Amino acid sequence: MNHNYSEELKKLISESLRERPDSYPIQQIFAEFPTTTELMDVSEQQLIKIKGIGMGKARQLTAMLKLAKLLTIPSSQEQVKIRSPKDAFELLEPDFRYSTKEYFTCLFLNTKNCVISKENVSIGSLNAAIVHPREVFRAAIKRCSASLICSHNHPSGDSTPSFEDVELTKRLVKAGEIIGIEVLDHIIIAGNSFVSLKEQGLI
């Protein structure tokens, strides 16, 4: 069982599915979704592929995880304001800390640059995240965002933007101009370091 999960979370998942912590379905959930980031974005379709988990249990677990997400979104009094790339880095870095895959995550902001929502848009392989502007802006429109900040991690430990990173950013900026939702920055995180494409003059 992966130690990236707290014992309390393991216990809650087991209890919500009415399974023993050492049962096959529970062990498989932790094996196939080894980080909390991956688990929070799991779909019913992914869960029912695990032997012993039917649609009922899959819906139960995804509903619990959605509730957990809603409860962790800051209230209007506690909203985080993004004033600089470092602010965004400090908010995002804990999510990427133990990731072995690339996660493309967006911060959706209101007109005052306060975070409305933080969402994973895509999960890639070890060295590539496949992202389409459609997915990014569908989520942004859903959240009534005024602007957004894109980010993804480089598990390699090197935060240098690749050619593909720069091209993707340009596509997103152009799409944002058409839709009316500004892409403020694209931040690449690797370990304790980050690169802001805005600061690099690449946006």
Provide structural commentary.
- With about 200 residues, the protein is α+β, with helices and mostly antiparallel strands.
- It has 2 domains: about 5-70, Orthogonal Bundle (DNA polymerase, domain 1); about 85-195, Cytidine Deaminase, domain 2 (3-Layer(aba) Sandwich).
- It is built from 8 helices and 5 strands, in the order ααααααββαβαββ.
- The chain has helices spanning about 5-15, 25-30, 35-40, 45, 55-70, 85-95, 135-140, 165-180; strands spanning about 105-110, 115-125, 145-155, 180-190, 195.
- Strands 2-1-3-4-5 form a 5-stranded mixed beta sheet, sandwiched between helices.
- α8 links the parallel β3 and β4.
- The model has no long low-confidence stretch (mean pLDDT about 85).
What order do the helices and strands come in, and which of them pair?
Blueprint: H1 7-16, H2 24-32, H3 36-40, H4 44-47, H5 55-72, H6 85-96, E1 103-109, E2 115-123, H7 133-142, E3 147-153, H8 163-179, E4 182-190, E5 193-196
- Rg of Cα set: 18 Å
Number of distinct helices: 8
User: Got a strand count?
Assistant: 5
**CATH class category of the largest domain:** Alpha Beta
Structural class: alpha+beta
CA-CA gap between termini: 42 Å
The sequence of SSEs as H and E is HHHHHHEEHEHEE
Instruction: State the major sheet.
Output: 5 strands, mixed
Helix content: 40-55%
Residue-averaged pLDDT, rounded? 84
Q: Quote the CATH topology of the largest domain.
A: Cytidine Deaminase, domain 2
Spatial strand sequence of the major β-sheet:
2-1-3-4-5
Question: What percent strand?
Answer: 15-25%
Give the uncertain stretches in residue-range form: none
Question: Architecture of the largest domain in CATH?
Answer: 3-Layer(aba) Sandwich
